[in-house]
Amino acid sequence: MKINAIIHPAEEGGYWAEVSALPGCVTEGDSMDEVINNLRDAILGWLEVANESKKPDSIISRL
């Protein structure tokens, strides 16, 4: 599965990232490597919570 994310420079330094297909799925990091690693964790966590709430069909239709 391919999920697109947008990585932004943070005003205070570092980066923050968002996944528009997964509302509320955001993360941050001090470096590009850190924000990418954190993004993987955030996406997996978001999908896990969505699966536990029994809403995977509505999620997959947005991807």
TrEMBL record:
Gene3D superfamilies recorded: 3.30.160.250
Pfam families registered for this protein in UniProt: HicB_lk_antitox
InterPro entries, alphabetized: HicB-like, TA_system_antitoxin, TTHA1013/TTHA0281-like
HicB-like antitoxin of toxin-antitoxin system domain: residues covered: 5-55
The protein, known as: HicB-like antitoxin of toxin-antitoxin system domain-containing protein
Gene source species: Aphanothece sacrum FPU1
Lineage: Bacteria, Bacillati, Cyanobacteriota, Cyanophyceae, Oscillatoriophycideae
